[in-house]
Sequence to fold (479 residues):
Amino acid sequence: MSTYFESYLTVGAFAALGAVLVLVMLGVASVLRPTKPTAEKQLTYECGVDPVGDGWSQTYVRYYVFGLLFVIFDVEAVFIFPWAIQVDELGVFALVAMLFFIVTVIEGLVYAVKKGVLRWE
Amino acid sequence: MSLAEFGIVFLRALMVFGLLLVATIVNIWAERKILADMQARIGPNRAGPFGILQTVADGLKLFFKESITPRKVELGMYMLAPFLAVIPAFLIFMMVPFGRPFTIGGNEVALVGADLNIGLLFVLAMSSMAVYAVVLAGWSSGSKYPLLGGVRATAQAISYEAAMGLAMVAVVVYSATQGDGGTLSLVEIVERQNGTWAGFIPRWNLFPQVAAFVIFLLAIIAETNRAPFDLVEAEQELVGGFHTEYSGMRFAMFFLAEYINIFSMSAIAATLFLGGWSGPTFEDSVPAFISAILPTVWFLLKTYAIVFIFFWLRATLPRLRYDQLMTLGWKGLIPAAVVWLIVSTISMGFRQFGAPWG
Fold:
C-alpha cells in the first residue's frame, strides 16, 4: 500500500482511537458514579428558579447574516488555496487575476459595512 | 502492509495520544499556577510537588461525580456532542511534526501523526468541526443559556475562521517561494524554515510574515474560546455557556477538548511561524542521543511560549463585549488579513517574476 493511503489510514486509526478513549472514560465513569435522579435535579438549569417557557427560545436573527457572509469568505478560500500552492507555476497572469478576485470579494465586505449589516445594536 | 508498518502506525498514534494527554495535564496546572502568580496568589500546592498532581486529582474526582441528564435534553445529540468535541481536537495535532524523523530497525519513523499533503486544509476542517460540538451541545440541552452560548460560539468561530484561513494562505504563498513549489504539508513547511539568514537569524516565517502571525494568534485565541474572547461561556451572562447542562465526566470531555485545542493550535502556530522543531542540534559537541531529542525540545519550548501568551492574555485583558468582538473580527482582522495577503503576494511576485517595468 502506498504511503499516501497509509497516512489516511493513520488518520482513521487515530479518530477511532479517540472515540475509544472517550467511550472508555465515559464507560468507567458510568460504572463508578452514583445515579440517583430526582425530579428537581432533572430540571433545566435557570439559576435555581423554575424554568420559564421553552428552552428553545427565539434568538437574534443577526447571527444569520454573519453566517451568510462567512459562506462568501469560505468559498473564497476554496479558490485561493489551490492557487496558493501553484503560485510558482501559474505565473504573473494568475497572480494578477487572483488579486482582482480578492479585491472583488473585499469590495463585497465594504458594501456590507456601508449598508450597516455588520453593526450590532 | 506488513505487520511492522502497521505497528509503526499504531505506535505513532499512541505517541501522539500520550503527548497530548500529558500536555493537557501540564497545561491546566500551568495555567492555574501562572494565573496565581500574576494575581499574587499561591495556586494549587497540595497534591504532589508544586501541586502538579492537582489536575490528576481533579480528573479522578470527576469519575465519581453524578452525571445529571435533564429531562428536556435531545438525548442523541446530547450524548454525541462530547465525542465531537474531543475527536477533532485530537486530529488537529496529528498533522504537526514534533521532532526530526529517526530510524528504528531500518524503518524510518517520522515524528508526526500523519503527513497528509493537504495538512493545513485538514487543520482548518477540524477546527470547524469543533464548532459542531459546541452548537449541538448548546442546542440539544433544551435550555436557554446553552442555546445562547451555542449560537454565540457559531458566529464567533466562523468570523475568526475566515481571518485564520487568510493568514494561513499568506504563509502558504510565502513558503511556496522558499522551496520546490507550493505545499500544504506541515512537514514540508517546517523543513523550509530550517537554516538561518546571515548566519544568526533563523529562517522562521515569523519575520517575513509578522502581520499574518499576529492575525493568526488572535484568531486561534478566538477559535478556542479563550479570554478575552470567551463570550461563549461568559459566566456573568450565560452561567456556563454551552456546557451548562453537562456534568460529571461528560463535562470533563469538553474541558479536555478545550485544553487539547489550546495546545494543538499553539503547536500549529509554532509550526507555521516559529519553525516547528527546527533549531540548533549541536551535532559535533554533544552525544547523538541528545541531538536527536533536541528538535522535540525546541518544538515544545516554542509551543509553550505561545500557550503562555494564552494564559498571560487571560490574566491581563477583560472580556470583550459582543459587538466589539464582531467589529474586531469583521472590520479589523479580516480586512487586515486580506490587505496583508495582497501585500505579501505582490512582494512575492516581484521577487519571483521580476518587476513588470524591468
